[in-house]
C-alpha cells in the first residue's frame, strides 16, 4: 500500500491556514507595538526612536534605559511586523522557525536591533540569493536571524568616532558583507554542533563578529564595555507579560479544538534542529507551549529576584518564540537548572542580568536535555554559564546572540562525549 | 557535483541510516536525477523486521517541502541522530510501501 503521510497527519491534527497563522502572529506583534503607548506619549516614543536608531547598540544596551520603555516596545513591535512582512513577501510558511525568528527579533529589538542596523545585513543575504540564483525564501531564516550582528553596523557608524558619512558608508558595507558571508557559513557551522545548539546563526554570527573584532583591534579600535540596563518595573511588566502569555495559551487552546491534545507528544520531542512543532503537532498546541515557556520565563526572573528589563524580556521572548522550534518545559528546565546551580557555586550573582540571560538564552541547549536526559541538560547549563561569560570578549559585544556562540561551543564539545557513552535507542 | 546533487546524496544517506537502524541490511538504492527533479528510492528486505518498526517509519516520514529549512541540509545523514523531519522538509513527496517481505521508501525533490 502506498501512503502519502502528509494526508494522514491532517486526519489527526487541526490544519490552520497560512493566512490565519500570519494574522495571529501579526496581532501579537501589533500588541507589543501598541503596548509602547501605555508607557509614553507618541512624541516621547518618536524622540526615543531617534536615540535607539543612533545608538551603538552593543551588548548590553537596554533601549528602555537609553531611550524609554514605550520606544523599546514600539521598536520591538515594529521590527516584528517588518520581519513578518519580509516572511510573507518571500512566501515563507508561518511555521515554527519563522515564529521563532519573529519573536527573537522582537526580543532583541528591546536591546540591540533596530531598523537602521538590520537593513544592510538582510539586504546582503538577499544579494547572496541573487548571486546564487536561488529563491530568497531558502535563506529567509539566515536573513532574519542574521540581524544578530546589527551592533556591528551601529558601532562602526556611531561608535568609532568616524565622520558620520564615512561611518554610515563603512557600517553598511560591513553589514552587506556580513549578509553575503552568513549563508555559506551557517550551512557549514550547523555540522559543528550537530543541531544541538538551536541558535545556529548565533554561533555563526559569533564567529563572524570575532573576525571583525579581531580586525578592528588590529587597527587599534576597541568597543567599550557597556552595561546600560533599566530596573524597577517588575510588577508592571509582569502583569503585561502575564496577560500576553496567558492569551497565547488561551488562543492556542481554542485553535487546538478546545483541548491540550498533542501537548504531551510535543514535550516528548528532543527538540534538536530541525524540530518544527507547528508542522509536527499543530499551530494551536504550539501556541500553548509558547505561552507556558513565556510564563515560566517570568516566574524564573521573579524566583531569583531579578529585574524585568529590555534584555531579560528579550530573553523571555526568545525562549517563548523557540517554543515553536525546539524548546518546551521538559527540555528547557534542566538547562536552566544547570545555569542556576552554576550561579550558586561560581562567581556570578543569580539575580544579575547577565546570569538571568544565561539561564533564559542558555535554553539554546535544550535539545541536549531532550536527547540525553536531565543530567546531561543540567551539565550543559552548568558549563554554558562559564563559557558564555568568557566569549563576549571575542566579538566585543558585536554579536547579540552571545549565548548562541557559547551554546555552539558547549554542544560541539559535549555531544560527541555523550554520544560515545549513550545506549542506542530503537529508531533514532 | 552540483549543490543539488550534494543534497540528494545527504537525503539518500539519511534514508540508508534509517534502514540500517531498523535492522535492514539488504538494501537497494535507486536514484534518478535530472534538471526537473530527483528521486531517491530505497528497497529493503524486511521479512525479519518487527512490524512496529515499519509502523514507526510510516509515522515519522513525510514530504512537506519547506524551502526555509534548506539552511540545515547538511545535518541530514551526517551524524548519529535522526533527521527524518529534515528529509521531509527537503522533499516534495514521500511514499512508503510495505508488502510484507519488502519495504520501499520513495522521496521526490523538485528542482
As a whole number of angstroms, the C-alpha radius of gyration of chain B is: 13 Å
The overall strand count of chain A is: 1
β content of chain B, as a range?
A: 25-35%
Query: What is the β-strand count of chain B?
Result: 4
- Integer average pLDDT of chain B: 87
Give a short account of the largest sheet of chain B. 4 strands, antiparallel
Distance between the termini of chain A: 25 Å
Q: Helical content of chain B, roughly?
A: 25-40%
Q: What count of structural domains of chain B?
A: 1
Let me know the average pLDDT of chain A.
92
Q: What is the 3D form of chain B? A: globular
Number of helices of chain B: 3
Radius of gyration of chain A: 20 Å
Distance between the termini of chain B: 15 Å
> What summary fits the major beta sheet of chain A?
none
Unreliable parts of chain A: 1-5
Please bin the fraction of helical residues of chain A.
Answer: over 70%
Structure commentary:
The complex is a heterodimer of chains A (428) and B (111). Chain A has 428 residues and is mainly α. Chain A is 71% helix and 1% strand. In chain A, helix 6 runs antiparallel to helix 16, helix 11 crosses helix 21 and helix 15 runs antiparallel to helix 16. The two termini of chain A are 25 Å apart. Chain B is an alpha+beta fold. Chain B has one domain. A four-stranded antiparallel β-sheet of chain B has the order 1-2-4-3, covered by helices on one side. Chain B starts with a helix and ends with a strand. At the A-B interface, strand 1, helix 1, helix 8 and helix 10 of A face helix 1, helix 2, helix 3 and strand 3 of B.
Amino acid at each position: 500500500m502506498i501512503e502519502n503521510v502528509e494526508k494522514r497527519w491532517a486526519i489527526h491534527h487541526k490544519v490552520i491556514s497560512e493566512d490565519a497563522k500570519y494574522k495571529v502572529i501579526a496581532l501579537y506583534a501589533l500588541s507589543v507595538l501598541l503596548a509602547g503607548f501605555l508607557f509614553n506619549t507618541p512624541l516621547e516614543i518618536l524622540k526615543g526612536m531617534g536615540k535607539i536608531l543612533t545608538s551603538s547598540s552593543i551588548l548590553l544596551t537596554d533601549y528602555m534605559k537609553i531611550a524609554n520603555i514605550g520606544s523599546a516596545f514600539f521598536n520591538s513591535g515594529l521590527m516584528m511586523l517588518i520581519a513578518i512582512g519580509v516572511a510573507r513577501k518571500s512566501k515563507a510558511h508561518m511555521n515554527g522557525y519563522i515564529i521563532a525568528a519573529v519573536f527573537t527579533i522582537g526580543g532583541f529589538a528591546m536591546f540591540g536591533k533596530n531598523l537602521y542596523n538590520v537593513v544592510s545585513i538582510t539586504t546582503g543575504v538577499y544579494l547572496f540569493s541573487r548571486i546564487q540564483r536561488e529563491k530568497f525564501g531558502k535563506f529567509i531564516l539566515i536573513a532574519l536571524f542574521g540581524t544578530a550582528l546589527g551592533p556591528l553596523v551601529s558601532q562602526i557608524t556611531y561608535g568609532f568616532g568616524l565622520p558620520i558619512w564615512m561611518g554610515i558608508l563603512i557600517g553598511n558595507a560591513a553589514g552587506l558583507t556580513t549578509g553575503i558571508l552568513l549563508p555559506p557559513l551557517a550551512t557549514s557551522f550547523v555540522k559543528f554542533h550537530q543541531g544541538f545548539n538551536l541558535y545556529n546563526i548565533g554561533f555563526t554570527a559569533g564567529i563572524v563578529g570575532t573576525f571583525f573584532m579581531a580586525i578592528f583591534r588590529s587597527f587599534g579600535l576597541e568597543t567599550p564595555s557597556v552595561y546600560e540596563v533599566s530596573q524597577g518595573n517588575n510588577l508592571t511588566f509582569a502583569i503585561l507579560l502575564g496577560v500576553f502569555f496567558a492569551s497565547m495559551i488561551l488562543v492556542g487552546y481554542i485553535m487546538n479544538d478546545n483541548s491540550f491534545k498533542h501537548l504531551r507528544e510535543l514535550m516528548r520531542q528532543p527538540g534538536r534542529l530541525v524540530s518544527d512543532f507547528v508542522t509536527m503537532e499543530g499551530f494551536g498546541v504550539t501556541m500553548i507551549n509558547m505561552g507556558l515557556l513565556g510564563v515560566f520565563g517570568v516566574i524564573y526572573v521573579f524566583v531569583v529576584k531579578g529585574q524585568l528589563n529590555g534584555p531579560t524580556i528579550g530573553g523571555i521572548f526568545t525562549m517563548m518564540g523557540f517554543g515553536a522550534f525546539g524548546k518546551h518545559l521538559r527540555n528547557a528546565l534542566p538547562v536552566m537548572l544547570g545555569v542556576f546551580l552554576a550561579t550558586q557555586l561560581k562567581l556570578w550573582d543569580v539575580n544579575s542580568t547577565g546570569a538571568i540571560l544565561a539561564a533564559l538564552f542558555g535554553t539554546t541547549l535544550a535539545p541536549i536535555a531532550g536527547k540525553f536526559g536531565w543530567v546531561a541538560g543540567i551539565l550543559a547549563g552548568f558549563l554554558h554559564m562559564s563559557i558564555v561569560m568568557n566569549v563576549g570578549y571575542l566579538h566585543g559585544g558585536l554579536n547579540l546572540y552571545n549565548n548562541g556562540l557559547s551554546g555552539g561551543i558547549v554542544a560541539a564539545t559535549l555531544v560527541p562525549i555523550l554520544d560515545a557513552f549513550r545506549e542506542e535507542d530503537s529508531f533514532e | 557535483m552540483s549543490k543539488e546533487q550534494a543534497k540528494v546524496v545527504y537525503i539518500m544517506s539519511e534514508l540508508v541510516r534509517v534502514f540500517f537502524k531498523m535492522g535492514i541490511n539488504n538494501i537497494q538504492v535507486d536514484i534518478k536525477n535530472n534538471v526537473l527533479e530527483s528521486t531517491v528510492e530505497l528497497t529493503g528486505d524486511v521479512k525479519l523486521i518487527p512490524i512496529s518498526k515499519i509502523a514507526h517509519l510510516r509515522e515519522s516520514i513525510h514530504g512537506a517541502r519547506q524551502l526555509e529549512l534548506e539552511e540545515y541540509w547538511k545535518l541530514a545523514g551526517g551524524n548519529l541522530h535522526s533527521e527524518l523531519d529534515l528529509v521531509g522538509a527537503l522533499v516534495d513527496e514521500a511514499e512508503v510501501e510495505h508488502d510484507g517481505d519488502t519495504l520501499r521508501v520513495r522521496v521526490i525533490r523538485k528542482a
